[in-house]
Design goal:
The chain has 317 residues and is mainly α. It contains 15 helices and no strands.
């Protein structure tokens, strides 16, 4: 018989063993009750054509305001003149084209609006054009500039291009104040048609937003937009009635030429500004109709394309 056989485990090891006279715990004893579990929110990209969620944009209105304010601060950060550039740029452009057309055509043949000086007519065209150009340029880069937010935080992606368009309205207000000063200096008193100015400004904002949505969506996937945009903006300015009035360019042309030219969304806006501030016999209804049609198509298609492609931004921006 071996030594230690028949002894208890305590006598064999020399250690006391404590046992609880309780049953072993069940496998599910440490699980949280179903009612106390933390709900999970899974955000997945939507498929197909996605509609415009205006209530969601309204809930993120503070973020849009913050992004617009940030764009303004970054634009004029460490700038000696600051927001004065919003006025200097159109004034310098006015000086260049006044000198150019004055030397080529003579002071009596400048292509301005009838009944007002060329300087006032051109600056009146530059004010809405600067609004459009700044909004399109900044809006096209909005998704790329906000790359850190797009790739890490959920928010309605439409907030990115909307914010720089709103920021451009601040520069527009500054340059418009200078335009009012020029009108007072020239002795021009706007008539009752001036009440249409907010409509024309809204049309310019809608056109800029539509173009910015298209370019922002494509620029997030292909960086060619960034390289081509400065040239496109300059070319668009030359085919818009900014430094010349539409009647001086299309006088005597057939009706289809006027209609084709009115499809430029900024044609009706700029000529509408001149009519509202300078007055005139008849409003440019034909030009406004063509511009409004193009603006509606740009804005609708821009919203659809942006919402369609936004699911790819976080992976490819």
């Amino acid at each position: 018989m071996r030594q230690g056989a028949g002894r208890s485990p305590q006598e064999t090891t020399g250690k006391r063993e404590f046992r609880l006279n309780q049953p072993a715990p069940r496998a599910d004893a440490f699980r949280m009750p179903a009612s106390a579990s933390t709900p999970r929110v899974v955000i997945e990209p939507q498929t197909g054509w996605v509609g415009l969620d205006l209530p969601e944009l309204w809930r993120y209105r503070e973020l849009i305001a913050f992004l617009a304010l940030r764009d303004l601060k970054v634009r004029y950060k460490q700038s000696a003149l600051g927001a004065a550039w919003a006025v200097l740029q159109p004034l310098l452009t006015l000086a260049v084209f006044t000198g150019l057309f004055g030397s080529l055509l003579g002071p009596d043949r400048l292509p301005g609006a009838a009944g007002v000086s060329y300087a006032v007519s051109t600056f009146c065209g530059l004010v809405p054009w600067q609004l459009f150009a700044r909004a399109v340029t900044a809006g096209s880069e909005s998704v790329v500039v906000n790359q850190a937010l797009v790739t890490k935080v959920y928010f309605p992606r439409l907030a990115a291009p909307i914010a720089p368009v709103l920021a451009a309205l601040v520069d527009f207000a500054l340059s418009f104040a200078v335009l009012l000063g020029m009108l007072a200096w020239a002795g021009i008193v706007p008539g009752a048609a001036v009440v249409w100015l907010p409509i024309f400004a809204l049309l310019a904002v809608a056109a800029a937003l539509g173009v910015a949505l298209w370019l922002a969506a494509v620029n997030a996937l292909f960086r060619d937009v960034r390289l081509a945009l400065p040239f496109l903006v300059q070319l668009w300015m030359l085919v818009s009635p900014v430094v010349y009035a539409t009647p001086s360019l299309l006088h005597g042309r057939p009706a289809w030429v006027w209609f084709a030219y009115s499809l430029n969304p900024m044609t009706g806006v700029i000529e509408g500004f001149r009519w509202a501030l300078f007055g005139g016999a008849d409003p440019p209804v034909g030009l406004l109709a063509g511009s409004a049609l193009t603006t509606a198509l740009l804005l609708t298609s821009g919203l659809l394309i942006f919402r369609r492609l936004e699911r790819q931004f976080a992976d490819r921006v």
